[in-house]
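[User]
If only I could read backbone structure tokens as easily as an amino acid sequence. I have put the entry right below:
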Amino acid sequence: MLTHGGDIVGFAEQYGTEPLDFSVNTNPLGFSPQAKAAFLRAAERACEYPDPLYRRLRAAIADHEHIPVEWIACGNGAADLIWRIACADRPRQSLVTAPTFSEYETALSAVDCRVGHYALSSENGFRLDDGILTHITPDLDILFLCNPNNPTGLTIGRSLLQQIIDRCRVCDVRLIVDECFLGFLPDAEQLTLKPYLAENPGLVILKAFTKLYGMAGLRLGYCLCADAAFLSDLCRAGQCWPVSVTAEEAGIGALKDAEFVEQTLAFLPAERERVRQSMEELGLLVYPGEANYLFFHTDIPNYQERLAKRGILIRSCSNYIGLRDGYYRIAVLTAEHNDRLLAAMTQIKEE
């Protein structure tokens, strides 16, 4: 059973055409030009085995993130690293928020870990609150957080994050913070937990090239952690050669593409706000997301199917733990594509 967005093949089989896909939240400007150029150059070397230690990529990430190269491990997308973390750590008791990215629980369950849920309430706008601190106890092994959260697009307050880090350190709980969407925020460098790595070896930060650099099909992610022994276990917890030749070169190219990131940050906030306001005018309950997607609720039945019949694919969130029918997520795409979505939503309202 599919639990994520982006099933354009299934859509085409059902509706006879590929959709305008709002179900995956990658960069609305597409593939980073410098990453694409590096990928095309690397295609000539696809007959070679990759560097199993992806040395050049780790060096480029270390320079980009301003951290020691020994604190970096890479994988076949962030999802690969989530599974490696579960396999390397073998936790017995874990905690995730509800709702959040389902891959955390899927990976944890695969290693027979008990998964507890801290519910994010609609009354509180699905924001994480300090009630989670009482759930961080010495019998907990690992805590996964997503910042900004998927599917809500909301960040966790800095003060609360500090309290969570301190509590996890006292209780010897490994803290995994997924920052894969943080790069879409203009103040990402003020929000990242990188400054806490040195004093908190139990802290692991997840990042990926998937979203910001538009590299979903290449599969490339990395994690940051000051615990060298844990990173060594993580690297042994999966297949050899987790990063292909083409993915490594594309990643190195992406990190050089500051202009592409600047263009993205110049475009996204105003366009996201325009789409949000337009959706609210149509009577939809839209949450104030901070990333490149919007989370919303509607009482109109079969909303996803109604849009699909108009050639548009959105992400139903009914299979997220803690949510029910009527909750959806859409990516913020280009202005032209967003206008097509809003036009279809207007038609549905007028039916």
Observations:
- The first helix runs from residue 8 to 15.
- The mean pLDDT is 96.
- The longest strand covers residues 93-98.
